[in-house]
Amino acid sequence: MPKSHANDSIRKITDLSENDLKNWASEKGHKPFRAKQLFQWLYLHRAADINQMNNLPKQFREEITSHFSIDRIEIIKHETAKDGTIKFAQKLADDYQIESVLMDHVDHYTLCISTQVGCAMACKFCLTAQMGFKRNLSPGEIVEQLLNAYQFIPTDKRIRNIVYMGMGEPFNNYDNTIKSLEIFLNPAGLNFSSRRITVSTSGVIPGIIKFGQEKEVKTNLAISLNGVTQESRKKLMPISNRYQLEDLIAACRDFPTESRKRITFEYILMDGLTDSITAAKKLVKLLHRTKSKVNLIPYNENEALDFKAPSENSIKAFQQYLIDHGLIVTLRRSKGQGISAACGQLATQKKAEA
Questions:
Q1: Average pLDDT of the chain?
Q2: pTM for the full predicted model
Q3: Is residue 5 pLDDT above 80, yes or no?
Q4: Which of 5, 91, 161, 325 is least surrounded by Cβ atoms within 10 Å, i.e. has the fewest?
C-alpha cells in the first residue's frame, strides 16, 4: 500500500499554515517572526531551497530541514496546446501522479488544480472517474501545484485565478482543501483575492453547508449540476443517489453569499442528453429564487466515453433561452482540448513510470 504524508516521519513544510509554523517555532524556542519570515520565503519569494533563506539563522534552518521536507512534488511531463494551455503531470512521494492545467488568458493565467488522486464520484462523463479514488492530497500537495506552475509563465504575467476543478472532489478532502485555501489567501505570502478563487463540488451537501459557515475562508462556490431533474442527474452523477437534487438546490439557496457574488452552476451540454430546450426550461425553473449564474460547457469528447458534443445551433439556442428568461449565462469554450486538458479530461496512470 502506498504511504501517505500523514504517516511520514518528516512532513512537507507546505502542509503547514503560517499559524502552524508559528506554533512549531514557539515550541522550539524561536521567536514568532522567524516563522513569518519562513512563510514569506516559501510563498512571497517562492524559494525552493533552504539556502536561499539567508535572513534565517543557520540553527533555525538546520532545525527546519531536520523536521520538514522542502522538496516540492516533481513535474515529470508537460504539454502545451495550440491555445497556450499547459497541462503538467506531477509525481507525488508515493509515485502516484496528478495533473494540473494552466490556462492562458492574454493578460493573466488561470490555474486548475486537483485535490485528490483520482475521484470517487464516478460521474459517467468524466475521465478522472475512470481512475477510481486513490487518496486525498495533503494541503502542501495542493499548494505546490501553484508553486510549480510559476515556472511556465513569463515574468510579465501572473496567475490571477485558481479553480478547484481538477482531479477529485474538494469537499471529500475538506480539511486539506480549507488549509490550502488559507495558504493561498494569506496576505503575507501568495495573497490571492477570495474573488479570484473558485471551489467546485459535484454536490456534497454537508460540505456546501460547512463551507458556507467558514469564518476566515470565503471564496466563490461552483456546483457541477449537469441534470435538471433528479432522474436525469442521477443517470449522469451517482452522487444524486445520496444527495437529492431538490436538497442540493435548497442548500444553495441557503448558502450565504456576499451582495455581488453568485453561485456558479456548471452545466455540461451533451448531445441528445442535456442540450434540449425542454431541459433549458426546467433549468430556469430549477434555479428560480437562487442567487446564481450558469456556466455552460459544451462536452469535450474523448475516445474512452460515448458522450457527444452538441451542435453549435443547440448550444446557441440553449444559451439564448436562459438569457431570455433572466439567467446570467456564460459559455465556456474549454481550453486545452488537443492535449486532453479540458474539463473532464484529466486522468493519469495508477503509478508514475520509473
A1: 91
A2: 0.91
A3: no
A4: 325
Contact 248, 205 (CB under 8 A): yes
Task: Give the C-alpha separation, 221 to 255, whole Å.
Answer: 9
351 pLDDT above the threshold of 50: yes
**Model confidence at 78, in pLDDT bands (50, 70, 90)?**
very high
CA 66 to each of CA 15, 21, 59, 96, 204: distance values in angstroms, whole numbers, following the listed order: 16, 14, 11, 25, 39
Q: How far apart are CA 181 and CA 198, in angstroms?
A: 10
Which residues are annotated as catalytic? 99, 343
Q: What is the mean pLDDT of residues 96-116?
A: 94
Nearest to 344 by CA among 262, 237, 248: 237
Among 331, 195, 348, 321, smallest CA distance to 258 is for 195
80/77 Cα distance (integer angstroms): 10
DSSP letters for 65-79: HHHEE-PPPEEEEEE
Q: How far apart are CA 243 and CA 303, in angstroms?
A: 30
Q: Using one digit for the tens of pLDDT, what is the confidence trace for 185-235? A: 999 999 999 999 999 999 999 999 999 999 999 999 999 999 999 999 999
**Cα–Cα distances in Å, from 87 out to 229, 303, 340?**
34, 19, 8
Domains (ranges, CATH) in the chain?
12-69 (1.10.150.530), 74-339 (3.20.20.70)
Contact 164, 177 (CB under 8 A): yes
Residue among 135, 149, 20, 179 at smallest CA distance from 73: 149
